[in-house]
Amino acid sequence: MRFSRMSKTMNPLQILENIPEGVFAIGQDCRITYFNQKAEEITGYSRQQAVGKTCYEVFRPEICQSTCSIKRSMTTGKESFDHQVNVLDRSNKPLSIRIQTSPLRDDVGAIVGGLQTFHVIDRPNEEVQEELVLFELRKKIGKDRRLTQVLEILPDLAKGDSPVLLQGEPGTGKRLLAKAIHSLSDRAEGPFFHVSCKGRSEESLTKELLGPDLELDDREGPRKKGLLERAHLGTVFMEGIEDLPYPLQVGFFRAMEKGVYLPVGAESAVELDIRLIASTETDLETKVKEGTFRENLYYCLNVFKVYAPPLRERKEDIPFLARDILWQLSLEKGKEVHDIDEKASLVLQDYPFAGNLSELRELLEEAYKAAKGKTLMTRDLPRRLIGEGRSGGGSREAQTRGGEDPSNQEKEAILAVLVRNQWSRKRAAQELGMDRTTLWRKMKRMGLDYTTPPDKNREEPKETG
To answer: For residue 461, what pLDDT is reported?
Structure first.
């Protein structure tokens, strides 16, 4: 697209301000130089917030920056049409947009930047809706290969109506998984209720699930419906079901089995048509053997099990999640901290995170307050991460745990995956659950040159990544 001289009544910027699509322009450095009014409406960002940022920072898409359409248009000099991209708006809501890109030329035809127009897909089909749900989930809980395997089966699992049991430590994203299953199911238009069983008394849970006893509560007025009655045709997520009192386990299983139950204060039985999703942090089979959990309810839940791995077992997700959390904090608090230094990233990756995603956010909130620049440094991290009095790197205990430097362990793991994939960075990055650019940086730092594999006797495969 070329901007040429126009009459005073046909100012190009006035035209761009009034078209019904979002428009933004970037310079050669990929930073936004123009952001129109419709782009503000769609994304929730003002132009003051957007201008000067990279389009990747503002839209936070899943596509790698190396495959960016607008960047490709700037390189090839060609336009691209009708690409679908999933992005997040300022409130972290996922949007599916269609984009068109073109090179931006000056008066003599030289490419000086790129232009992108976009609009939201208002009525996404089932496939696009599914992509949006999984896109949002990856942004919030991670995308390493173990989680990818879980997410691959989630749409098919959601289409059924059988109970689902989610297993994992506190803070691993089980509630987000439950919400995603509901959103992908045929019950998506129905209600979704979350019930925490942790530390709750039988009386409290009975009142919440079945409704209050009006006579005992000495209240007047119409009968108040319990949660199970209000959840009809929807989904109920019972967090920490191992703490559900035994008498309620009995009544709950019977209600699930028969499809009817008698709410407190009701004169007749009502239908129970819900999808049950439960979570547990313990081994329910052990609870059954101990006699504290109903065997029939356990087998009812044991049909489909989904395991949410802890954060310490998927270290490559930590920098990805940390940057997204820092971006959210920047939007909420006003101070811009959008990136994380590589050394600080390694310290975070070495931390055990007993509280998983919840603890990661808490630690980053502390670090965000201490940050002096737009990049989070090791000095900004809470002392309990880096060891008392240390100014960088992991603690000595962390570095020598298991008798080996964690960086050497990571190098060996990456080397094994590269060899297994014949040194294809593309396939290796997919198996490791990281971007190819991240893998390339790590290989460079570790001295792993993909052009000279360790086995000099075998034929060098062509790089397909």
So the answer is: 40
Least confident of 15-19, 262-266, 386-390, 397-401: 397-401
Q: Which DSSP string corresponds to 83-107? A: EEEEEE-TTS-EEEEEEEEEEEE-T
Q: Which residues span the domain enclosing 320?
A: 312-403
Instruction: Report helix, strand and coil shares of the chain as percent, to nearest 5.
Output: 45, 15, 35
Contacts of 283 (CB under 8 A, 6+ apart): none
Q: Do 245 and 262 touch, CB atoms closer than 8 A?
A: no
What is the Cα–Cα distance from 451 to 461, expressed in whole angstroms? 9
Question: What pLDDT is recorded for position 423?
Answer: 78
Higher pLDDT pick, 438 / 331? 331
For residue 258, give the amino acid letter: K
Q: For residue 452, with 0-12 CB atoms within 10 Å meaning exposed, 13-18 middle and 19 or more buried, which class applies?
A: exposed
Pairing of strands 375-376, 339-340: parallel
What CA–CA distance (Å, rounded) separates 317 from 145?
Answer: 10
Secondary structure letter of residue 287 according to DSSP: H
Sign of the CA dihedral running 367, 368, 374, 375 = positive
Task: Give residue 388's pLDDT band: very low, low, confident or very high (50, 70, 90).
Answer: very low
Binned at pLDDT 50, 70 and 90, residue 211 comes out as confident
Residues 357, 170 contacting (CB under 8 angstroms): no
Residues 152 and 248 in one domain: yes
Full-prediction pTM beyond 0.85? Answer: no
Give the end of a domain, one of 271, 291, 307: 307
Exposed, middle or buried: residue 153 (CB in 10 Å: 0-12, 13-18, 19+)? exposed
The CATH number of residue 431's host domain is: 1.10.10
CA distance 190 to 361: 31
The count of domains in the chain is 4
**Which of these, 272, 196, 211, 208, lies nearest to 241 by C-alpha position?**
196
Distance of CA 27 to the CA centre of its chain: 30
